[in-house]
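Something for you to look into today, if you have time. What I am after is a single protein written out in full by you. I want to see for myself how the chain folds. Could you add the entry underneath, on a fresh line?
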Amino acid sequence: MLRRDAFDLPEGVIYLDGNSLGPLPRRAEAAVARAMQAEWGAMLIRGWNEAGWMDQPDRLGDRIAPLIGAAPGTVTVGETLSIRVFQGLAAALSLRPGRKVILTEAGNFPSDLYMAQGLIDALGQGHVLRALPATEIPAALTDEVAVLMLTEVDYRSGARHDMAALTAQAHGVGALTLWDLAHSAGALPVALTRCNADFAAGCTYKYLNGGPGAPAFFYARPDHSEITRPILAGWLGHAAPFDFAPDYAPGPGRARFRIGTPPVLQMAALDAALDIFDGVDIAALHARAIVLADRLATGFEAVCPDLRRLTPMDPARRGSQIAFAHPNGYAMVQALIAQGVIGDFRAPDILRFGLTPLYLDAGDIDTAIERFAQVIEGRLWDDPAYRTRNKVT
């Protein structure tokens, strides 16, 4: 399971932030160089045909599909996650024209909420966004709801929704589901087909290690993809894009959800990153991540009893991260980074650490605990330099 040699990690650094940006896969540099030199450089525009650039979105979609429990031919890659959420939400609303409620979790990732708010304003049809605490969502699933829009794993606490149960309940009242898999794909078992999920989207730069700005993926249940007319009708989603017809005609199945030109170089890096998952048992990977997370949590809490754990104790109810709250959380994280242990911070007071057994083992966790002890016992976090907020936290 441990594939540390597949990553180009700085010597001496314990990287606990793969839930925000995955590290560089060693093969990615050569893959991008090949795409630039042997393809773009040598082939020029012929690369679209001779190097298969135009097929990248669907070919990579088929590589991601097994990692999220989707069937071949149902996932495509391209654009950003925010755009994909907007696209999926619009598709779901179009399939439930008589309903006006979008149900989501209060504290869902802000971009998802912004996309919903923007779509509501653009449609001007009286839709409302109803954001409730996670515990109130089941009771709020009524026949008013058009779409249940949730991030499977909460970006702050790491708490995980029960996709199967909530999807079944939504369908029981005639609602559809849209799942954000940003903190799920590549980290834990996802079963879109088995759960009968309607739509899903996720990014590829976190646990899938596709690199900063790597494109998102989008899933639509096959029966939906054949009848939905995308709100973002891009030229590559046309049934015959190179006919350059003035009017849009949706392509078949997932093809209609393509929008713009594929980011060839980013997709080359992602393709190399996905090689790492060949032969990986995602369930076993997640089980090991839970063990590492518990080891880190126990150690950190012993060093600093004032930490308040936010991540659920039940392994079935969490993703592959551990999160704590502390009034000095930002400064603690910055001091820890200076000691070579990289985690991150989320407002207002959350210390957040991702556990990825592809490149982390128990020894790394023990080293992180030792360095955290140095930060706490030496009050290193009290340095004013660690209290100045960076643009990216």
